[in-house]
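Sanity check

After download, print the first record. It should look like this:
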Amino acid sequence: QFRLVESGGGLVQPGASLRLSCAISGFTLDHYGIGWFRQSPGKEREGIGCISIPDGTTHYADSVKGRFVISRDNAKNTVYLMQMNNLKPEDTGVYYCAATVMGDYCSNYILSEYHYWGQGTQVTVSS
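Expected structure tokens:
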């Protein structure tokens, strides 16, 4: 059974960095997309970045472009990373990774097209 598990969240001060991990298992497709979503308090879940596999093309929402970087762990092909730099209070929320079979269209961030979701990890940015 396909499974995603996020880790790496925490409480940090503005300007700090965090790295989130998304470990996937049970997926046998060669073409897919891994999306990162954020749900901030009182807001709807939004897509903030994704990576298309196998080509590795990444996409970022304007709110995180230049600060967040998505990659695949070279040592572990089943782990996806999101390096978050210069964190701001508005980055606070629960972060989810999710998988879609429509990897080439992962940046559409259509929730219904992401059929597999992790449990989420909390990121809090506060002084």
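If your output differs, re-run the checksum step. Summary of this record's structure: DSSP finds no helices and eleven strands in the chain.
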